[in-house]
């Protein structure tokens, strides 16, 4: 029976070590995202997240509030809201996002909707098309702090000249931050090559 207890102990140590690694990595991503500073740019690109009808989730509302602040402070002169309609959503994320922005004083003609995206790579790929069509050369990528490092890396892969603004996440977003750790690692392992990156 000694071997069984040894195996159980080893598994327990491995599990604790793995959890500690995930927590530290997630905290590192959050720190990097919050440390990024936006530069004055042509447009802000807000990456989508879950919305309950026209009611944005807490992470999405935080991203939108960050975009509103940047617009009012003169960092950006227009906003692209990027996000399609998920299987568990009744409206496209971009529609909900634009409504939130307009209700909070952003001119409707300053908000451009991108409704096709289902992941980070598509968010920035399709937003780049809107930037090209509208004559925007530079962007501030706006998303949750833990998500921003990968989003900026995707933007650079696609040739988008961008800085970032990380909306502060809460403790309630811990699971999302941990998922982002796996996505970030997979992205690095794949060599940051689009269009194979689909998360």
From TrEMBL:
Gene3D superfamilies recorded: HUPs (3.40.50.620)
Protein name: YdcF family protein
Domain of life assignment: Bacteria
Residues spanning the signal sequence: none
Species annotation: Alicyclobacillus mali (ex Roth et al. 2021)
Domain DUF218: 42-181
